[in-house]
Design goal:
The protein is of the alpha/beta class. The chain has one domain: Alpha-Beta Barrel (TIM Barrel). It is 34% helix and 17% strand. It has 8 helices and 12 strands. Strand 5, helix 3 and strand 6 form a beta-alpha-beta unit. Helix 1 runs parallel beside helix 3 and helix 3 packs parallel to helix 4. It is globular and about 50 Å long. The structure holds iron/sulfur cluster.
Length: 288
Amino acid sequence: MSKTGERAPLSTTDHDRGATGMKYVYAVVSRRAGGVSVGVNLNPNNACNWRCVYCQVPGLVRGAAPRIDLDLLESELRELLGDIRSGSFMQARVPVEARRLRDLAFSGNGEPTSSPQLAEAIDRVAAVRDELGLREELPLVLITNGSLLGRPDAQRAITRLAAHGGEVWFKLDRATAEGLASVSSTPVDPVRHLARLRDAAAICPTRIQTCMFERNGEAPDADEIDAWVDALRTLVADGVSLRGVLLYGLARPSLQPEAGELDSVSPDWLERLAARVESLGLSVQIST
Ligand code: SF4
């Protein structure tokens, strides 16, 4: 029996990346994606260069991805996609209503662009997907905080991603230096971050991903939200090609020390913000 057949069913609250028993590859039932999202984790060491206060990575440490065993990654992916395609994984692990494939996401326990092997990993993953006839069903997605996308290695990687029909999901939680630092626990220059976003969008189709939440009972203040909306307005006015905005609430509890300070914003609050974004001509998808 394959590893994937021995485990308990997955749910939208079960995002345990060890659930397949594999090192680099996992599958989750994703509310965001509305089905099964296959994930590639290039950070099995739980290392990221940011420390977002809402981060759900267990044992998160500062750092970069370790050296990746690309042959192992490829064989794990081939096994998991083979089980999914045969139906055995879906039957054993996925609730009936979620038995559809949504995407194949580089989204692990840390920042994937910190791996200098990302471009090669993208090529390997795309080759397995295409070989199994899943290109149409499984679009590639790179979920990134965007902070390292100025590096030549990372730009080479998203060039490859574009060649395989993939998308970048670029994190823009806030648009002021204070706001970005308060969320990521890291100094981030908003001007440079937005420049990286523009460069990424010029190389590969890109969506913005933003997480909004209350801290100590308060939603982000009006000035902070205005700055974020203004940043989007400027991008649109400058003709930056964006596929839309993914607006997240707090889906699952943070595993960071600030967890007790955080709470969800109300659905109405998110809807009002989404309406402001849509008025700029950008599509919005809300996930709570
Ligand atoms: S960028 Fe992602 S992995 Fe890194 S700390 Fe933030 S949420 Fe966690």
